[in-house]
Write a structure and sequence with these properties.
The chain is mainly α. The protein has nine helices and five strands; from the N terminus they run ββαααααβββαααα. The chain has a three-stranded antiparallel sheet. A two-stranded antiparallel sheet has the order 1-2. α5 runs parallel beside α7 and α6 packs antiparallel against α7.
């Protein structure tokens, strides 16, 4: 089994740097840098890409907190309605995805920009950034799973458990490989990269959430046996299906032998 590794905080005078926060900040910077490079290669407007990412970050932060409170801890809202304004008190990655996605569509639509082309560029940066971000969850051990004797379990203080933050790292590696390989195709239709990433993450996250702990404080609630993230996974998979279907319709058809002869 894997050890329960805890990385100490870094103290720089009055400032304390936490491993989780540093890795998440690194993920944001990496994702932005890669998306910006990709947008330039694809001939997209740098100002539009930057504005979109900035609004996405703000909306993701707000969405992550609102989703956490409303779907995971509604009892906190009943006790203190002002908890909705305490954005530092609990975050959900899926809520961040939702908020960021809405912001991207709104900003790009208002600017009259090709939404799918820009979203593909953002997906190019988001997939590898997700690797770094989930490494942050891994060192924080903040996604404990069920107790298990699985050989890749992590030895939590109360016993060996699945570590879902750790298990999302190979999923993010798969997403990155798929997005970057498909991104090299010249006949790639808009929306293919985003749809592929959404399909892979939706399937992987839906399966992994069945391993989430139910015997720890603050365990994810279940609604008809599924976590809030799993219901959102179904929405993500539906969107991915539409994007991939749209991409398939936009893909250039192969030329028939007669068409090829005429072209020659």
């Amino acid at each position: 089994m894997l050890p329960y590794v805890q990385i100490p905080e870094l103290h720089l005078g009055p400032v304390t740097l936490y491993p989780f926060g540093m890795l998440v900040a690194t993920a944001v910077l990496l994702g932005y840098w890669l998306a910006r490079r990709r947008a330039r290669v694809q001939g997209l407007d740098d100002v539009t890409l930057t504005a979109t990412v900035n609004w996405m970050l703000l909306a993701a932060f707000a969405g992550a907190h609102l989703f956490e409170v409303l779907c995971y801890h509604p009892e906190d809202l009943r006790q203190d309605p002002l908890v909705l304004l305490k954005f530092w008190a609990g975050l959900s990655s899926f809520g961040g995805f939702l908020g960021g996605a809405i912001a991207a569509v709104v900003v790009l639509a208002r600017r009259g920009a090709p939404i799918l082309r820009y979203c593909d560029a953002i997906a190019w940066g988001l997939a590898p950034a997700w690797i770094v971000g989930r490494l942050g969850c891994t060192v924080a051990h903040d996604h404990p799973g069920r107790l298990t004797s699985f050989f890749l379990a992590v030895r939590y203080p109360d016993g060996p458990r699945f570590d879902l933050g750790l298990y999302e790292v190979p999923l993010a590696l798969l997403m990155t490989a798929a997005v970057w390989l498909l991104g090299r195709r010249r006949d790639r239709p808009p929306g293919l990269l985003l749809g592929t990433m959404a399909a892979l993450y939706g399937c992987g996250r839906f399966a992994l959430d069945f391993l989430r702990a139910t015997d720890v404080r603050g365990a994810d609630p279940r609604y008809l046996g599924l976590t809030p993230a799993q219901y959102l996974c179904l929405v993500v998979l539906a969107v991915a299906g539409v994007l991939l279907w749209h991409a398939a319709q936009r893909r250039p058809a192969a030329a028939t032998p007669r068409e090829g002869a005429n072209a020659a």
